[in-house]
Amino acid sequence: NAGVTQTPKFRILKIGQSMTLQCAQDMNHNYMYWYRQDPGMGLKLIYYSVGAGITDKGEVPNGYNVSRSTTEDFPLRLELAAPSQTSVYFCASSPQGGNTIYFGEGSWLTVV
Amino acid sequence: DQQVKQNSPSLSVQEGRISILNCDYTNSMFDYFLWYKKYPAEGPTFLISISSIKDKNEDGRFTVFLNKSAKHLSLHIVPSQPGDSAVYFCAASPTSGYALNFGKGTSLLVTP
To answer: Lower CB count within 10 Å: N or C terminus of chain B?
Structure first.
C-alpha cells in the first residue's frame, strides 16, 4: 500500500541550480497538491491539480512549475533555486477537492 | 492572512490526562474541518474530521468539537499517551474548495 511516494527524500542544491521533485500516487485520486512547510509555519499550497492536464497556482507558486501528464504523477520543478526555497516539500492527493488529503513522507530541500 | 489559526505553539500534558488543542478560523465559507498529526521526518497523517452539520465527532480517544458561531474547533485526546507526542495541524476547507488551509500547528508533548 504505497499511497503517495515522493523522491528524493533529501537534497542539497546550490543557488541557481534546478531540480525536479517527483511525486506519484497509486490511489487513482483526481486531485494532487504540493505544499511546503517552513520551520514553525503551517503548510502552504504551492500548486495543485484537479486532473491530468489541469494545474493551477496555490498560495506560493513563485519559483516553481508543475505538470500533470498522468493521473498518477505530479512532479514539481524548481528553476534557479534560491535560499528562500529551503523547506520541506509535501506532495498529497485526494479523491476530490475540499476533502481529506493524503500526504507523502516529504522531501527535505536545502539551497546553499 | 492566516485563515486557520492555532494560537498555542506547544502544549505539555501528563500521561493519562486530557489534551485539548484549539483552532480558530476566519473564513465563514469553511464547512469541513480536519486534524492531522505529524511526527518528525514524516508526512502529516489524517486523524479526524468534522463537517459543519455536526458539532461533535468521536473516534476512539479522539473527539473533535465544532462551535460554528465562534468559528472555533478543538481536539480532545483522552487519555493522552506518550505516543501522542507530535505536531497537530488543524485544517479547513469549503467542501466546494480545492485544497485545505492549514494552521501553523501545535506541538503536543505527553510526559510519563
So the answer is: N
- To test the contact with chain A by mutation, choose from B1, B98, B104 the residue with the greatest count of A C-beta atoms within 10 A, namely B98
DSSP tag of A99: S
Residue B38, beta-bridge partner list? B87
CA B68 from centre of chain:
15
A50 neighbourhood in chain B, CB within 8 Å: 98
Transcribe chain B into DSSP letters: --SEE---SEEEEETTS-EEEEEEE--TT--EEEEEEE-TTS--EEEEEEETT-SEEEETTEEEEEETTTTEEEEEESS--GGG-EEEEEEEE-TT-SS-EE---EEEEEE-
Q: How far apart are CA A38 and CA B73, in angstroms?
A: 24
CA distance A61 to A42: 16
Per-residue pLDDT of chain B (112 residues; tens, 9 = 90+): 789 999 999 999 999 999 999 999 999 999 999 999 999 989 999 999 999 999 999 999 999 999 999 999 999 999 999 999 999 999 999 877 778 999 999 999 999 9
